[in-house]
Amino acid sequence: MSSGLYNEYVSIVDGVNILGGYNADTGARDIETFETILDGTGLGKYLIVKYDSPCENPTLIEGLTLQNAEHSSDGGAAYIRANITLSKCRIKNCKGQNGGGVFNDGGVIKDCIIELCSSTSSGGAIRNSGGIVENCIMRGNQGKYGTIRNENGGIVRNCIIHNNSATVSGWPNSGGIYNPSGIVANCIIACNYGSQYAAIHSEGKTINTICWNNQAEEGFGDPIAFIEGNGSSHNAAVSGFADAKDAFNSKFHKYRCDRTQLQIPYSIYRYSQLCRRYRSHACSRLDILK
After folding, report:
1. What global pTM score does this model have?
2. pLDDT in tens, the chain (290 residues)
3. Starting at the edge strand that comes first in sequence, how are the strands of the sheet with 183-185 ordered?
């Protein structure tokens, strides 16, 4: 798709890739310079990336901006399933019931920014059921049961979840991640607000993850970062370093400081790469917290 603003939706077709960021005149591709936008304004409560039939072949959706979409059911902007990858996309200002930005039912979401989305139920940015979410930034989203709800063996890894809020009533009301039955690895969860578990409520497996400067409602007595089996903390948690080289192929980036070689989570290194790639305010605080 060439650059431009398209006030329409597209349907996912098995094996047919949807690639944005092309110059209509030259055919050159640069997703930053030649932005391809799908805008849901005035289209009613429908997905702008629609899933109509199963995909048996790998199908890639890459280099799109999805914005201003509202859906009355699962997913605000997009609904993806197995064999579908959503990559290098920006999803903003979308609304849905489960997954304000995307409902991921067994697919892959990677290298994306999801911001300013909201849900009336689970996952202000993403509801991830058995899929993979990796190398993503989620910021400024609002919902309950987590900015991302991760379940049914889903994997969330190498992600930054910051400056999100959960103000809709419901338990457990987490501003960051609600992980009832998935895996969270190598993530940073910072500066989120939740009326209860501001950072994370994890009954699944959480490894090598940092929770920092999250804020719960005044008077909430339980830990802000609850990680079952790995301990919990009122405002800072570093979990599971002993298991960090486990089966999830979690990468590390080496950093040298004062002649001492340290290993930091790959998510921190990856975050700096994403900030440079999008040349945005990804590293800045959105100041949605009061």
Report:
1. 0.82
2. 999 999 998 999 999 999 999 999 999 999 999 999 999 999 988 888 988 778 999 999 999 999 999 998 899 999 999 999 999 999 999 999 999 999 999 999 999 999 999 998 899 999 999 999 999 999 999 988 889 999 999 999 999 999 999 876 777 888 999 999 999 999 999 999 988 889 999 999 998 899 988 998 888 878 788 888 665 555 545 544 333 333 233 333 332 223 233 333 444 444 444 444 433 333 333 333 32
3. 18-19, 59-62, 84-87, 108-110, 132-134, 155-157, 183-185, 205-207
Locate tokens 């900015």: which residue? Answer: 147
Map tokens 């910051």 to a residue. Answer: 162
Pull the structure tokens for residue 119: 């849900």
Tokens 């992600």 map to which residue?
A: 159
Show the tokens assigned to 116. Answer: 């300013």
